[in-house]
Amino acid sequence: MKITIIAPMDNIMDAAREVLAQNDLHWPGEIEVLPGLLEAGLEQACQAVNRGTDVIISRGGTATLITKHVDVPVVEIQVTAFDILRALKSMGHVSGTVGVIFMRRFLFECEKLGDLLGIPIQEIFIDNELRIEEEVLEKAGRQGIGTLLGDASAVKLLTPRGLKVGLIESSVESVRKAVIEAGNLADVRRREREKAELFRTIIDTSADGIIAIDKNEQITIFNPAIERIYQLSGSEVIGRKIGDMISDDGLRGCLTGDTVERESVRRVNNRVFAIRRIPIKLGEDIVGAIANVQDVTQLQNFEQLVRQKLNKKGLVAKVHLEQLSAASAQMKVIKERVRQYAANDATVLITGESGTGKEWVAQSIHNLSLRQKGPFVAINCAALPESLLESELFGYEEGAFTGAKKGGKSGLFELAHNGTIFLDEIGDMPLSVQARLLRVLQEKEVMRLGADSVIPVNVRILAATNQDMMHLVDERKFRADLYYRLDVLRLHIPPLRERVEDIPELVSRFLEKSPHSHIVGITSEAVKFLQKQFWRGNIRELENVIERIKLLAPGPFIEERMVREELSASGHIFHDDIAGHTGPDMTERHKLEQILFEEKYNYTQAAKRLGISRTTLWRKLRQRQKT
Fold it and tell me: SUPFAM superfamilies of this UniProt entry (predicted)?
């Protein structure tokens, strides 16, 4: 920041230097002192403005002249009663009325000062600083004034006319006060300029078009974005009536407070824009209006960008098709189905026992599809209570229920927009939530809890279950209409015991997950032994077993003995045990496993042999798994 003092007389130069020499102003900026009277002072001031000065200080006619020709604030050094007393003292004996010349009208009340001194004093106000002689001579003659007091310009111009003119000099304290005032003014002006520059930068760099009008309907803001939209330059339209330049009755309607369309979608130059209009109020008075114009295409792109950012928060599918083990004929067929289903956008119902890798298959479908750059959102429908599952899937508005997050929350369907949502264990979804899911499938839109409007979503649904869905439909535990909506494309993942050819590749992959492990491989005997087991927990159980052996085995290779010891310690039922375990003492667990094994895990045939329903068999198996 910078202050320039234009001193019209030597006294002010000296006083200013003394003020600066005291070094107690605590002014962080620069202060320069320059001589200059009237036109010379104006020239100095103009040059200072060009150099970037913030405030100018001067006095008398010079200050008045500068004020009229520059656009920076001018602080005038005030004349005090002590300044006048000093001037009178320097004049010696004074007779008659004394006239004090002022270039501006101040509430100084010189007459009261004269009453105290016993000297008649009159104020002479000059309207034109360049016509001091004419005005003073005319007014002094009319008022009978014999002695004059004034600034340097008055002394310079009137003394040659034979008038007795005393110089009113400024005290150091008067100059100090002017400098302090100028410093405060410079601070305020700098802050105002910073705000104005911030406002201008925000307006000019906004991707949205912004247009504003004043109460007279004249355009006051027309930023670069709005210039591109309407193909008009700001210089063409600023100051013009909005009705003469563009068609926007809504913006003018804001001025009158009429009920107008504050938000609308309009086509301008073959492009579609969302327009929002707001009145500008000063207290209760409407003093203008402003409109925000957004390109709908840009809004959609930004929405997509936001959703892509969500992907970085973990909403991604990490498994690709090549990562699915496919040594077995069954898995080769499944991988081909994945390729076919990925090219389609229909819903897929993935069935299979727990632990067979249904989510891996779902992620592979997503990563091969056109939605691969969108989010992949997975949720286990059996892991959450009904109320929480509903709010997680569909979101909620603020105040929808006790404990609802301020501002509401987006549901998983919203997060999965332009991507895929994977609903695991869909058979355990409560009926009330099934109804809402059916609407999403039918209408492609969701309604948050507590909301009164819908949100369009573009989501592909992949669902998975380890249950007999038709049986759930028969028992009215699952909606038939929803089931047929989900079961458009079906993919059954066989259990691990039916595709033992995949076990070597799976084991190798599990070992590679820990590259710094002391285990470097597994013997062929150990692999063959693993291939003979049932793996009721399928891939998940196999992976857990390998992880434990990697930790406990001395290495460097996993041997059959280590596998047998680990399986035995974990209560695993070996193939040989089941095949040879017969007789009246066979436990129900062994019996179920034996018959399922003999029937190649055909649950319908196994249920018939056991003399129980398929549902009862499922229930017993699930009870066994829990224990």
Answer: Homeodomain-like, P-loop containing nucleoside triphosphate hydrolases, PrpR receptor domain-like, PYP-like sensor domain (PAS domain)
CA 272 to chain centre: 24
What is the torsion angle, in degrees rounded to the nearest 10, for the CA atoms of residue 170, residue 173, residue 174 and residue 175?
A: 80
Apex 513 CA angle, 567 and 493, nearest 5: 65
CB 73 within 8 A of CB 117: no
- Per-residue pLDDT, 571: 64
Cα→Cα distances 485→369, 423, 442, 461, 464, Å: 20, 14, 9, 10, 13
Q: How many CA atoms lie within 13 A of 168 on its CB side?
A: 26
Parts of the chain with a pLDDT under 50: 577-586
Closest residue by Cα to residue 419 from 463, 371, 462, 457:
371
Per-residue confidence (pLDDT) for residue 46, from 0 to 100: 96
499/493 Cα distance (integer angstroms) = 10
Stated pTM of the model: 0.52
Total residues belonging to the chain? 627
Residue whose tokens read 């095949």: 579
* pLDDT value of residue 591: 72
Two tokens, residue 85: 């007393």
Cβ density class 168-188: b for 16+ within 10 Å, e for less: bbbbbebbbbbbebbbebbbe
Q: Are strands 209-214 and 219-222 parallel, antiparallel or unpaired?
A: antiparallel
Number of helices (H), then strands (E), in the chain: 28, 22
Sheet containing strand 219-222, edge to edge, reads: 219-222, 209-214, 285-295, 271-282, 263-268
DSSP 322-363: GGS---SHHHHHHHHHHHHHHTS-S-EEEE--TTS-HHHHHH
Instruction: Work out the number of other CB atoms within 10 angstroms of the CB of residue 555.
Output: 14
**pLDDT (tens digit per residue) in 582-612:** 444 345 666 777 777 677 667 788 888 888 8
Decide: helix, strand or coil at residue 460: strand
The predicted pLDDT at position 516 comes to: 60
Say if residues 603 and 617 touch (Cβ distance below 8 Å): yes
Which H or E run contains 201? helix 172-205
CA distance 285 to 253: 14
Res 249: pLDDT:
60
**CA within 13 Å, CB half, 303:** 16
Q: What backbone torsions phi and psi does residue 74 show, to the nearest 5 degrees?
A: -120, 120
Quick one: which of 182, 241, 222, 197 has its CA closest to 20? 182
Q: Determine the pLDDT at residue 592.
A: 77
Q: Cβ–Cβ contacts within 10 Å for residue 263, how many?
A: 11
Sequence-ordered list of residues with C-beta below 8 angstroms from that of 511, at least 6 positions apart, any chain: 517, 519, 520, 521, 522, 546, 550
Residue 565: per-residue pLDDT: 87
Residue 416: closest CA among 316, 329, 506: 316
pLDDT value of position 577: 47
Give the model confidence (pLDDT) of 310-338 as tens digits. 555 567 888 999 999 889 999 999 999 99
Domains and CATH numbers, the chain: 2-77+174-189 (3.40.50.2300), 81-169 (3.40.50.10660), 206-296 (3.30.450.20), 321-492 (3.40.50.300), 496-572 (1.10.8.60), 577-626 (1.10.10)
